[in-house]
Structures are given as structure tokens and as C-alpha cells.
Amino acid sequence: MRRRSFLQRLVYSTSVVAAGAIPFALSRLLAPAELLLARRHLRPPGALKNDGAFVAACIGCGLCGEVCPPRCIQFHRRDGGTQVNTPYINPEEKACTLCGKCTEVCPTDALNPVEREKVDMGVAQIDRSACYPWVDRGICGACVSICPLGDQGIDFKQWNQYQPVIQQGCVGCGLCVEVCPHPSLPIGIVGRSQGRVMGHTVS
Amino acid sequence: MNNTVIDKNAHQPLFLWKHLNKLRWLSLTTVFAMLVLIPFLHVYQTFVSAHTYDLLSVSEKQIFDTMEWLSSPFISDPEEQLDALKGNTWSGSFGGVQLSDPLAVLGQIVSSQAFYWPFILTALIPVVLTVFFGRFFCGWICPATFLYELNSNLGVLLRKSGLHIGNRRFDRRLKYLVLAIGLVVAVVSGSVAFAAIYPPAVIGREIYYAIALGGFGSGIVFFLLTLLLDLLVTRRGFCRYLCPGGALYSLLGRFRLLRIKRIVESCNDCAKCTAVCEFGLDPLHDQFGQECNNCTACIAVCPTEAMTFYFSPRDIANQGPGHLGRKYRQQNTLINQAEKTIDDK
Predict the structure, then answer these.
(1) Is A57 on the interface with B (CB under 8 A)?
(2) Among A41, A72, A105, where does a domain finish?
């Protein structure tokens, strides 16, 4: 009888672990690989610098997404493994306007209120082999005119040229990526600390 | 017989208790409706803040108009004032009051291995209420309970139509094991693992995903599996045997003050209370324990008004068969006969 009940409990606990693993397994299976690229995967402003600490602190309540006025904060709904249900911003679809509502509403310390000049979501990078003004295919300046930080974030190379140059004050909100009219998006957000160079292919 | 009638009048439960079950359904429905409404209000808010009514599609315009019609009597500035109502039962801010599930706080402390007091204090009100009222969240608020109870009603319909519905019983302590395993997983993986397998959190999130972000996440598959478990294996199986939040609430509500009691003088042993109990408890034999969520279904179903609330940190011991039942009468007639024979002698 004792062995029987022990075996029963063994079966129960295994099935419990298996049941807990179902969402993770599903999220692994359904994960499209390119979604986790850094340039399409920004954390909301004020997020903890260390991504592991961010995932540990985030409880996946979705409050940051529920207050976001442009609805740019998305969630790892079906992908991301342990990052499942954590928020991210894909600036190619919808970029952050640096309003800071998400940092105020976050119940945990995953998102902390910061001044908009001190936000660090990454830094923009321009591929000068594709950007229209840089290859002399006309005038544009969309990225410079949308930048919420004005000429601190991005500016023209010279007053009469429409060639954009990233400035020191760029916080990586991604609005320039959202408005870029070039189909292959020669502008993208990369991690500041990693020193990564944006991978970009002309389609 | 006269004695029992007098006793019954002395222990009459308050007339209100019988109707609490309807109030509970109202509460469950309201919470679920809010979970559906809040994402729509958020979508409306984003349309307002973008000033793009003319660019919206027909269905988006319908959402805009409906939400404007619903909210305009109460607020003047939707962009700011609708922020007062955000979130779900996992964590939310309601009129400036931040409330979180105690399980979210516990999971977050364990996974981040740090105490962030502003967040921990958001669980204070639920914890205090649970200490007083027991597992009330499970019966009165949980949005998954709403669907699970509808699911068990479906099970009753299926059984009436002749289909086999699972009604197995397992060890109730299994859920404490799930809670422990979940805490270990949270430490090892460094993420709040409960959020993925805790039905109220899953439901709140998935409704938001479906309405505002254009599609369900993977959590809905897990939730459908638990619905199947409840239907095919055991009634309310997830809540009774697997739910980590239920385990935490049961532990917190172990010495709850508000309890349901059987008035043995007016009980007639009909066992309807035991049959109706969603959590498979046994009110007929006074066995409530820490799992009772004060859902009051047994009070509502009792034909002789033999169920009532009382204040005590512990359950009363088994009071034996009800005084209006056949068993008690037989025992008593035997005793009376024995007394008579003694008197005769």
C-alpha cells in the first residue's frame, strides 16, 4: 500500500511538472526566431539594465501595455521561453513616444521612472549605404523631424544637406525607425553597451 | 418534536445568507466584464490620444463610439481619467489603489530575490482579507472561477444527457506541492513562473491580448487544457488539486474567522450541500477545512435553512446526523425506548 501511494504521488508530481512545462514548451515551439533580434526587441523606457534582472522582476501583469497611449508595448505572447509575457517594443511597427506612463504604473521595480533624456533603450544607427540622402537619392529628413529630443538625438550633417547623423543624446526610442520611408529600414536601434553593429540587408 | 422546532427558531440563519450566492455570481460576472471592458477602454484611449477618428476602420469606429457612449457620462477627459481603471486581478490599479495578487508578490520576491516594498505592500489588502474571510478570492473574484463554474454546469448538462463525466478524487495537498515546485522553478529560471500557469492571471492577460494586441497568446491553450481536465477527469480539478494561488490562499486562510456552519438541529441529512460543493468538501459532515472559499452555494441550496455563518478560528467537530433526519430519529427512538425500558424496570 505504501509503495502504491508513493508511486501514485510520483505520477502526480511528474504530471504537475509536465503541466507546468506546457506553456513554456508551447512558447518555445511557436517562437519565430527573428523576433528576438535586438533591433526589434527593445525593453520599455526605464527598464532594468540587466535583462535577466528585468525578467525576474516583471510579473507579466500587462499594466505597462494597458496605459501605453500609442499602444507600442507588445508582449511575448507565444514566444520567448522564460521571457514569456514580458513587454517589448518593436520600433519597426510602433515606436515609443517617451511619455513615461508605463514607468509610473509598473507595480514592481522592473520599470523605473526616469527623465526622458536619461532613458536608455539603445541607440540609433544609420546604414549610410542605403539611406536615401546618404546615397544621393533625394532629400528626406523624416527621422530628424520626428525625433522627440530635437537636435540632441539626431541632426543633419550640415545645414543644407539632408544626411542624418546620430547625436550623443539619442535614447533609442525608435520613432525614427517607425517613420523611415526606405523599405529596408536603413536606420535601427542597437544596444548601446553591447557596441553591436546593426545587421542590415538591402532588399 | 416541539423541542426541535424551538431550537430551529433559535438558530435561524439571517435571511440574507441565502441570497449571497446570487451576489457572488454578480461579483464574478462584474469582474469578468471589467476584464473585457478595460482593454476596450484602453483601445478607445489610444484612438482618442492619436486624434485619428477619421482614419479608423468601420469596426474601430464602432469600438470608439460604444466606448465613448459608455464612458462619457462619467468622465470628461478620457485620455487621463480612464487611467484610473487599469490592470487585472494579477495586478492592477483601481482609482489610485494598487492591488496585487499575493502569489504575484511571493513569486516576484523569490525570482528576483529582493524585497521591493512598494510592490509587496500592494498585496496587503488581499492578504488581510484572506486572513479574515479565507479563500474568498477563489469563489468571489477569480475570473477563471467564472469560466470554471460555467464549465462544471456544462458538465452537469452533459451528464444529464448520458455522457460520462470524470469525477475522480485526488489528494488535495497536491496543490501545495505545485506551489513549492513553482517557487523552485521561479528561482532556477529567474522568472515569475506562476504567471504562466495561474488561471486568473492567464485569463486577465489573454483577454487583453485578444482585444488590444490582436490575438491570444499561448496561455489560452493551457487554460483550455485545464477546462478539459475539469470536464473529463475531475470537477474543478485545477482549483482543487493544482492551483498554486489556491494553495497560498488556503494556507493564509487556514485560521480564517468567518466560517460556514451546519445547524444540526435543522439539518435533515439530504446531502444537497455536499453534492453542490464545487470544491468537493463535505458540509454534511462538518468538514470544511482550509479549502472552503465561503462561496455560500451550500447555504443557498439548503432546503431547511440549516447553514449559516459564524465567527471562529476553527471548524467545529462533526456534530453527527441532522436532527430532522431519519438516522437521528432512529437513534433517538432507540435511546427513548432504552430509557423507557430502564424506567419500566
Answers:
(1) yes
(2) A105
- Sort out which chain A residues have CB atoms less than 8 A from B87's CB and list them: 61-63, 66
Domain presence at residue A110: no
- Residue B144 covered by a domain: yes
Residue B294 cell numbers, joined: 465561503
Is residue B51 left, alpha or beta, with left meaning phi > 0 and alpha meaning psi from -120 to 50?
left
Contacts of B232 (CB under 8 A, 6+ apart): B165, B166
- Domain hosting residue B138, numbered range: 29-250
The full 3-state SS of B49-66, as one line of letters, equals HHCCHHHCCHHHHHHHHH
Among the listed residues A124, A136, A140, the one whose alpha carbon sits nearest the alpha carbon of residue A181? A140
Taking CA B204 as the corner, what is the angle to CA B177 and CA B299, rounded to the nearest 5 degrees?
A: 70
Under 8 Å CB pairs connecting chains A and B tally to: 167
Domain containing A37 equals 33-105
- The helix or strand, by DSSP H or E, that contains position A124, with its residue range, turns out to be strand A123-126
Question: Pairing mode, if any, of strands B91-94 and B85-87?
Answer: antiparallel
Q: What ipTM, to 2 d.p.? A: 0.84
Which of the residues in chain A have pLDDT under 50?
A: 33-35, 201-203
Does B315 fall in a domain?
no
Could you report the per-residue pLDDT of B136-167, keeping only the tens digit for each?
A: 999 999 999 999 999 999 998 988 888 878 78
Single out the residue in A105, A133, A148 at which a domain terminates. A105
pTM for this model (two decimals)? 0.86
- How many Cα atoms are found within 13 Å in the side-chain-facing hemisphere of A12? 20
Give the separation between CA A45 and CA B7, rounded to whole angstroms: 67
The three cell numbers locating residue A98? 517617451
Residues of A in contact with B225 (CB under 8 A): 19, 22
Q: Name the phi and psi angles at B292, rounded to 5.
A: -60, 130
